[in-house]
Amino acid sequence: MFLAKNRYEILNPLGNGAFGVVFLARDQNGKYYAVKRQLKKSNKLSREIRILLDLKQCWNVVPLVELFYSKEVKGGVI
User: Fold this and answer.
1) Statement: residue 78 has pLDDT above 50
2) Which tops the pLDDT comparison, 78 or 54?
3) Strand-pair partners of 37
4) pLDDT tens, position by position, 11-34
5) How far is CA 77 from CA 40, 44, 52, 56, 57, in A?
6) Which residue of 6, 33, 56, 63 is most buried, as measured by CB atoms within 10 A?
7) How far apart are the first and last CA of the chain?
8) Contact at 8 Å (CB) between 4 and 68?
9) 60 backbone φψ class: left, alpha, beta (φ>0; ψ -120 to 50)
10) How many CA within 13 A on the CB side of residue 40?
């Protein structure tokens, strides 16, 4: 399964929680990422995303690399 115009290949689930599911993904260059799938409940950014955007330059916070929205894939998880 691929995301964001085939830039990320979803490899396997890493974990889940109350607000989303985290997957291991690989980009076209072979670099690995953790991809979090969250349900979008409104047109507002979630509190977590706003905080991550504000803390972009902090060395001790996992950086938000990219944010995108996609439509639900019928029969899939993303």
Assistant:
1) no
2) 54
3) 21
4) 999 998 777 788 999 998 999 998
5) 14, 22, 24, 28, 31
6) 33
7) 8
8) yes
9) alpha
10) 12
Q: Residue 67 gets which letter from DSSP?
A: -
Distance in angstroms (rounded) separating the CA atoms of residues 69 and 72: 10
Residue of 21, 49, 52, 25 whose CA lies nearest to 37: 21
Tokens of 41: 């409940």
pLDDT greater than 80 at residue 40: no
pLDDT of the residue at 49: 81
More confidently predicted of 6 and 64? 64
Tokens of 25: 């993904």
What does the buried/exposed string (b/e) look like for 52-65 if buried means 16 or more CB atoms within 10 Å of the residue's CB? beeeeeeeeeeeee
Task: State pTM to two decimals.
Answer: 0.67
